[in-house]
Amino acid sequence: MTFENILVEHEKGIATVTINRPEKLNALNKVTILELHELLKDLDANENVQVVIITGSGEKAFVAGADISEFANFSAKEGAQLAAKGQELLFSFVENMKTPVIAAVNGFALGGGLELAMACHFRIASDNAKMGLPEVSLGVIPGYGGTQRLPQLIGKGRAMELIMTAGMLSADEAYRTGLVNHVVTQEELRPTYMTIANKILKNSPVAISKAIQAVNANYKDGVNGYETEINKFGECFATADFKEGTTAFLEKRKAEFTGK
Questions:
Q1: Calpha distance 25→206 (Å, rounded)
Q2: Does position 87 have pLDDT exceeding 90, yes or no?
Q3: Does residue 1 register a pLDDT over 80?
Q4: From the candidates 35, 95, 135, 173, which is the catalytic residue?
Q5: Helices (H), strands (E): how many in the chain?
Q6: Residue 20, exposed/middle/buried by CB under 10 A (0-12, 13-18, 19+)?
Q7: Residue of 108, 133, 124 whose CA lies nearest to 19
Q8: I need a surface site. Which of 15, 59, 77, 200 has the fewest CB within 10 A?
Q9: Share of residues in the chain with pLDDT > 70 (%)
Q10: Is 159 exposed, middle or buried (0-12, 13-18, 19+ CB in 10 A)?
Q11: What is the DSSP code (8-state) at residue 24?
């Protein structure tokens, strides 16, 4: 599968997806969003892929926002359709993937870039990263889930200030607020996310996918997260991974999970 704006690399169950528009600081346009959707959909269905990493090409940017030139002249209806389609194809899609998705934030993550990073299951940043939602400086608000996910991650007050001021957080500030899990040098970014990904690979893929569903349920309107947890917990008992995991524990050996 060949793409115009993204690259993919496979290594022992780990797929690294690189947004590759360095001349535009990897800004998201319609083509890139559609390509990401198609690739991530395939990766999520691939039993040989157990962890997905999303990063940006070069050393300056993860994703420095959306491609403003594509929607500068949109009407109100077109703007709403743009946000709805983007959330459906990419941002909500990533959040609800059964495969763990880690954002490796290697520079600027602004606007749609930060929204993509926040849609991932967690984030690791290089020490040169800068993160923010500057949309109000353009006369618009975040439209790809930023007003919802940022308060969930760093709290309402901090999110309100960051959005209203169109400010940026340094990597260290992002770490202190809980927006990112780790901050490392650019040279350490890949070894760090590969180390974490390999730790994930040791565990049951089917259990991890059900844990993702249970955690996400707490943030969905009208859904009882505790009930979801109970149901997903019960579903685990019918899996081969549960039988293997418990048997391996009792036999004092390493489990060999199949994701079934």
A1: 36
A2: yes
A3: no
A4: 135
A5: 11, 10
A6: middle
A7: 108
A8: 77
A9: 100
A10: buried
A11: G
d(C-alpha 131, C-alpha 115), whole Å: 10
Residue 193 pLDDT greater than 80, yes or no: yes
The tokens for 125 are: 């940043």
46 is written with which tokens? Answer: 């691939």
The answer, as to whether pTM is greater than 0.85, is: yes
- Helix then strand then coil, in percent of the chain rounded to 5, is 50, 15, 30
For residues 223 and 73, give the distance between their C-alpha atoms in angstroms, rounded to a whole number: 38
Q: For strands 101-105 and 122-126, give the pairing.
A: parallel
4 is catalytic: no
Q: How many Cα atoms occupy the beta-carbon half-sphere of 105 within 13 Å?
A: 36
Is 115 in the active site? yes
| Residue entry with tokens 């059964």 | 98
Structure tokens at 54: 């999303």
Tokens of 114: 């930060």
Q: Please identify which of the residues 35, 95, 115, 173 carries the catalytic annotation.
A: 115
In angstroms, the CA 168 to CA 156 distance is 16
Q: Supply the DSSP symbol for 215.
A: H
The residue type of 184 is V
Contact 200, 52 (CB under 8 A): no
Q: Are 112 and 133 in contact, with CB atoms under 8 Å apart? A: no
As a whole number of angstroms, the distance between CA 129 and CA 186 comes to 9
